UniProtKB/TrEMBL annotation:
Name recorded for this polypeptide: TetR/AcrR family transcriptional regulator
Record-linked PANTHER family: HTH-TYPE TRANSCRIPTIONAL REGULATOR YJDC, TRANSCRIPTIONAL REGULATORY PROTEIN
DNA-binding region: 26-45
Sorted UniProt keywords: DNA-binding, Transcription, Transcription regulation
The organism's place on the tree of life at top rank: Bacteria
Lineage: Bacteria, Pseudomonadati, Pseudomonadota, Gammaproteobacteria, Vibrionales
Residue intervals of the HTH tetR-type domain: 3-63
Pfam family, one: TetR_N
Keyword Transcription regulation attributed: yes
Length: 186
């Protein structure tokens, strides 16, 4: 069994999770899409929960890398927030929902381990947004009438929610930067 097959399973399952939902895809769907037998899928991921945990864990690692790259490439808080927003736009262009939003929509149906990891993933994003907003306030580029944590929650809610709306109505509007300005009060 090759690493390529394992990665193909992860990529295909991630797409299905983000376009159909966790509960809406099965190993039978993966069998058809990847072209291997269910028994082989179970070799890599004995349970669907194992597959889901691997997907979320890999997205958490990728998000940490994305944050490092954004911080390196964008010195301003607003630039960093726009770069973060562009990650949501890319997902929409690939006809996928944000992973956290897709998982949160099915939170009650997820195994406990995936619920915990989903909460952790949301908090990682909120913590980074809060840190970025604090930096913007200190540098005088952002102002807010609420706490940086509340503002981080508003920004993440806006990006997650707008992704769902655009995905549902199949409309691609590049509105992040000007609406972020409204949310951030700039």
């Amino acid at each position: 069994m090759s690493t390529d097959t394992r990665q193909s399973l992860l990529d295909t399952a991630a797409f299905m999770l983000r376009s159909k939902g966790y509960a809406a895809f099965s190993y039978g769907d993966l069998e058809k899409a990847v072209g291997i037998r269910k028994a082989s899928i179970h070799h890599y991921f004995p349970k669907k929960e194992d597959l889901g945990l691997e997907i979320v864990s890999s997205y958490i690692k990728q998000t940490a890398t994305n944050f490092e790259n954004i911080e390196h490439d964008f010195p301003s808080a607003f630039g960093r927030l726009c770069a973060f927003a562009s990650l949501f736009r890319v997902a929409r262009q690939e006809d996928m929902l944000p992973l956290c939003g897709a998982l949160a929509a099915e939170m009650a149906a997820l195994p406990d381990t995936m619920q915990k990891l989903t909460k952790q993933y949301f908090n990682i994003q909120l913590d980074w947004l809060e840190k970025t907003i604090k930096m913007g306030i200190v540098n005088g580029e952002l102002s807010t009438t609420c706490s940086p944590r509340q503002k981080a929650f508003q920004v993440l809610s806006f990006l997650e929610g707008s992704s769902f709306i655009c995905w549902a109505i199949k409309d691609e509007v590049d509105f992040e930067s000007y609406l972020l300005k409204d949310i951030l009060g700039i």
